[in-house]
Specification:
171 residues, mainly alpha, two-stranded antiparallel ribbon
């Protein structure tokens, strides 16, 4: 016997759990990503532990400023430069994630990266000094594969309604 594929009606796109779940997941992910991206400069200028004065010398001098209390901290310019490091972590995560996605299933990779990202965000929340600073950049790394993976899983096997479904997921 040859299995008959279930006909997908354009009117019941929302009845597919992987599509509706992906739409919700993408909405929440984009909100979280915007929050992390906009959070970086404020976090780096106000929540990092004291920085050794020796760091504020040479070509990196503009990255730092001294507070009223005499504590060396990141300047707005330095923190915005660190955003480039965050995006380098994002790029590294995208490349390594693509390699791992070739070996492991997409839903397991997405779940693993999501759980790790929740954990590193929790460590940022706990304000654990330099560990929390590193975790901010780890968050960039682990959110790198989420958008394309959620998208691909959301439109998987939707046939003729994939175009309409992809528009909703992106929107």
């Amino acid at each position: 016997l040859i299995p008959v594929a279930k006909k997908i009606s354009p009117h019941n796109t929302w009845s597919h759990p992987h599509f509706t779940g992906a739409t919700l997941a993408q909405f929440l992910y984009v909100a979280a990503q915007a929050g992390i991206f906009s959070f970086l400069i404020n976090y780096m200028t106000s929540q990092t532990p004291p920085i050794p004065a020796s760091w504020a010398a040479g070509w990196l001098k503009s990255w730092f400023e001294t507070s009223k209390d005499g504590i060396v901290q990141f300047s707005n310019q330095g923190a915005s430069n660190l955003a480039s490091l965050g995006f380098a972590c994002f790029l590294a995560g995208r490349f390594t994630g693509a390699g791992l996605l070739a070996r492991f299933s997409a839903h397991k990779m997405l779940g693993t990266y999501a759980i790790i990202n929740v954990l590193v965000c929790f460590l940022v929340f706990l304000k654990l000094g330099w560990l929390s600073v590193v975790c901010v950049f780890a968050s960039y790394f682990f959110m790198s594969i989420m958008f394309p993976t959620i998208f691909a899983l959301g439109i998987f096997n939707l046939g003729p309604v994939a175009k309409k479904a992809s528009a909703f997921i992106v929107m």
